[in-house]
Amino acid sequence: MADPKSTVYPETLAGGFTRVDGTIQFFTRIRALLEPGFTVLDLGAGRGQAFHGDKLPFRKALRQLRGHCAEVIGCDPDPVVLTNPSLDRAFLMGDDGRLDLDEASIDLILCDFVLEHVADPGAFVSEVHRVLRPGGWFCARTPNKWGYIALGSRIIPERLHSRVLRRAQPDRKAEDVFPTLYRLNTRSALRSHFPRRDWLDGSYVWNAEPAYFGRSVLAWRLASVALKFLPQALGSMLMVFMQKRGPSAGIPAGPARSNSEPQLVNDNGGGQDPVPIR
Q: What does the domain layout of the chain look like in residue ranges?
């Protein structure tokens, strides 16, 4: 059977990835922000299977932040994070959502497919703001609530998620499927919880391969064409890049929030991006 990715995206021949690969897009920008002296927090790091299970050496190397900064700290409510070998150290998030970190002690926070699981966005962003230094970055990749991935997740009953994912993504394990809430997964939610007075916003919409359409070449072809014509509001992924304001970083507080704040930019016109395992 023909491989749908290399058939629909023939450039995969040159390097093993498509021109709309969401992981390469996301981590390229993170690596551009990263500095040798940074302390990085991987918030929602899990067991690290997304990194260790990546079969493409170039992409896997791009995701590896350890060794490219001073320290990579992992945090997750699941004790499995303590076994994550891609971290310098790890700790468990408390039941109250508090992070066992000092104020303004982190230079960059990474959340890769985590925001869709956040139950209390206000408390979550408050902790992010507390531990991030002025001038520091909050970087997240997450499904857009109005994109086809999130819509499909909400339509399909929670009890059937593992069964459906086994068909759409056969390599994904049941222990890497988590309940989704999508309370911080719209442009309006991001503007509300990351107000302009506290944050500079460099977020945008990204569309990548339609990997949730299984291994049918025809389905991939139809999806890749159809998704090009979807309006921006239905884009599959939000690439969230927020920089914390602060006088000490030379970034003064911004204006009070208004209804005329700019929309997130739609940065490409491909298909969709899968929600990978953590």
A: 4-266
